[in-house]
Amino acid sequence: MYPNEFRYTKDHEWLKLEGGEALVGVTDFAQHQLGDIIYVDLKPVGTKLGAHQPLATIESVKSVSDVFSPVAGEIIAVNDELAQTADIINKDPHGKGWIARLRVGNTQDVAGLMKAADYEKYLEGLEEH
Amino acid sequence: MKTTRFNALHKKLGAKMIEFFGWEMPVEYKGIVDEHLAVRTRAGLFDVSHMGEILVTGRQALAFVQHLTPNDAGRLAPGQVQYTALTTPAGTFVDDMLVYCIGPEEYFLVVNASNADKDFAWVVGHQSGFEVKVENQSDAYSQLALQGPLAQDVLQPLTDVDLAGMKSFHWATGSVAGIAGLVSRTGYTGEDGFEVYTTSPNPGPMWEGILARGAAAGVLPIGLGARDTLRLEAKLALYGNDISDQTTVLEADLKWIVKFQKGEFLGKAVLEKQLVEGVKRRLTGFELVDRGIARPHYPVFIGGRQVSEVASGTFAPYLKKSIGLAYLPVEQTAVGTEIEVGIRDKRVKAKVVPTPFYKRGGK
Question: How many CB pairs below 8 A link A and B?
């Protein structure tokens, strides 16, 4: 379910490191919690973000939530498909539903994120509540 | 947390459960949008057993109901249902509700789950001087709603009630999937449909029977999420959002449930005065012109000044627009009036539109 090559946050973002850049999206767990996604508001390309700063806001029918940048970096691309079909996050959260591409400030920061197995364990803990 | 008698069946279907005013209820099964569209185009089944039921019986049952409500229960024959309210002396809402006329000395009040205990206390608190008996039967009743254009076709094979012969806002007793109950042509979605009440301690087969019969026609179980988007498209008021003890029946744009000719009722004097003088604000429908979703309590601006806040607001899955209701100054309620909704750090353009947003067979 959760790709091994990704890293994960407690806020249910995923990050896929590709050299000095990274793709960022939200996890399948997150899309399921949000329900039907209607809009995504993205910060513009060129925005510099610290770790845990909001890079997008997701509006679903029932709620609104921020997507936080897993690490510090600069937005170098956003997924333009989301403007027309935000629900691709529901359909393919770990693939076509990616949200932004970052130039990562310091790739060492990625080491502080959870691996897939740890994230799955973290989810089990949440579901027991 | 309280549970309905269908709780295990919801969980078996994989429903996402939430707490709703002390009840554990399904908020969605497949997703709000799919469920919403199923009700608009086919049919959907709702567990609404959390609703409250209050039985008023006795020689003066009608006079008592007339005292408590602005609509004219005197017009009801046995077998009929009426949308009305419990009003305060200030002409505001204790709750909105349905009144079923069972007989000349027997009325069945169906109230919101969130208000059931308060309503019962209110009704009991006003019974002095009336020869009536008031019973809270909420715990005994389960209630399902089957709503949508295919509701009659799906339900008819399961019941001995003649559904084709049942007019809107009428009811009859009968069985559904072998379980005795009461069926009315009522609902909270803007679609044709039925609500079924039963005191069976084991009504599960009713839920399962309707879903099984409807499966081939695409009937889905529907959670509270889509119940809210459906009722808002149809501009059906929700207590706590659109109406409360701070809003009068006339301000809520529900003048049609106030029958001034019928005689005395709680709040009549205030409402009569308001009718003559005119209300200062009215519950008004709007849609967003720019992108965004207006949600309850977001501020509403006109000409740069905050005049109100969003009462109800959502993305409307059938209309594919963001819609909402807000109490606006009456002089600003004309269709086309430009307003703004504060969505986080932005002010998003919106405009007053006619309501209901969605009308069955119209659009």
Answer: 34
B29 to chain A, any CB pair closer than 8 A? The answer is: no
In chain B, the residue whose alpha carbon lies closest to the alpha carbon of A35 is B31
Complex ipTM tops 0.85? yes
The answer to whether position A27 is within a domain reads yes
Partner residue facing B32 (CB), from A39, A59, A61? A61
Question: Which CATH number is B52-135's, of 3.40.50.300, 3.30.70.1400, 3.30.70.890, 2.40.50.140?
Answer: 3.30.70.1400
Q: Are strands B305-316 and B299-302 parallel, antiparallel or unpaired?
A: antiparallel
**Is A61 in Cβ contact with B315 (below 8 Å)?**
yes
**Is residue A121 a part of any domain in this protein?**
no
Distance CA B8, CA A127 (A): 18
Q: 152-171 in B: which are within 8 Å (CB) of A?
A: none
Chain B: give the shortest CA distance to residue A92, in Å. 15
Q: Nearest Cβ partner of A38 from B16, B225, B315?
A: B315
Q: What is the pLDDT of residues B107-131, one digit of tens each?
A: 999 999 999 999 999 999 999 999 9
Residue A129: the pLDDT is: 54
Q: Where do the structural domains in chain B lie, given as residue ranges?
A: 2-48+141-233, 52-135, 280-352
Which of A35, A38, A90 is the closest to B293 by Cβ?
A38
Domain that holds residue A13: 7-103
How would you list the strands of the sheet with B220-222, edge to edge?
B171-176, B179-184, B193-198, B142-147, B44-47, B220-222
Question: Is some CB atom of chain A closer than 8 A to the CB atom of B319?
Answer: no
- The string of pLDDT tens digits covering residues B29-71 is 999 999 999 999 999 999 999 999 999 999 999 999 999 999 9
Pick the CATH number of B280-352 from 2.40.240.10, 2.40.30.110, 1.20.58.1370, 3.90.550.10: 2.40.30.110
Angle at B249 between CA B88 and CA B267, to 5 degrees: 35
Q: Does residue A82 sit within a domain?
A: yes
Per-residue model confidence as pLDDT tens digits over B297-332: 999 999 999 999 999 999 999 999 999 999 999 999
Cβ atoms of B56 and B84 closer than 8 Å:
no
Distance, CA of B35 to CA of B231 (rounded, Å): 13
Phi, psi for residue A29 in degrees, rounded to 5? -60, -45
Distance from CA of B81 to the nearest CA of A (A): 32
Q: Which one of A35, A59, A64 has the shortest CB-CB distance to B28? A: A35
Q: How far is A61 from chain B (nearest CA, A)?
A: 6
Question: Do residue A61 and residue B314 have CB atoms under 8 angstroms apart?
Answer: yes
Whole-angstrom distance, CA of residue B130 vs CA of residue B244: 26
